[in-house]
């Protein structure tokens, strides 16, 4: 299985519109998102890079692990990040972190994953992450990072 990591930022007149714009920037604005928890199945391959799915499967379901941060106060920043670890057979863990700075998000990713590894028997490799941010000027902003597991159409009939 391939899990794609995409990311985006957006600014708009409302918090919801900023989130939608960030989804569109990430290439997934026209999907119905189904949030998953943070377990990576065995034999998963993680592929990092912004995608362009906006017109591909309009209205389909998209199974995701999503990190998002919205900010409305001018001069403040919104940062979102996904961190992950995997073992030798591809099993692993995601963490979804948001914060007010890149450093804060990176530190929380590392701290969270190290803590989660302590009580598991699996031996994970290095910590990976993708972090994005945007500064609020006058309108609400949103930063997001999304792990895409799969898309699925609707059964009609």
Task: Summarize the topology.
Elements: E1 2-11, H1 15-25, E2 32-35, E3 39-40, E4 45-48, E5 61-71, E6 77-86, E7 92-99, H2 102-118, E8 128-135, E9 141-152
Parallel strand pairs: 1-4, 2-5
Antiparallel strand pairs: 1-9, 3-7, 5-9, 6-7, 6-8
CATH architecture: 3-Layer(bba) Sandwich
Q: Distance N terminus to C terminus?
A: 29 Å
What's the level 1 CATH class?
Alpha Beta
Q: What number of structural domains do the residues give?
A: 1
Q: Low-confidence runs (pLDDT<50, min 5 residues)?
A: none
Shape: flat
CATH topology: Pyruvoyl-Dependent Histidine Decarboxylase, Chain B
Q: What share of the residues lie within helices?
A: 10-25%
Biggest beta sheet attributes = 5 strands, mixed
Number of strands: 9
Strand order of the largest sheet: 2-5-9-1-4
**Secondary structure tally, helices:** 2
- CATH-level-4 superfamily name: Pyruvoyl-Dependent Histidine Decarboxylase, subunit B
- What is the CA-based Rg, rounded? 16 Å
Beta-strand percent range: 35-45%
Order of helices and strands: EHEEEEEEHEE
- Oligomer state equals single chain
Q: Give the averaged pLDDT, no decimals.
A: 96
By secondary-structure content and strand pairing, the structural class works out as: alpha+beta
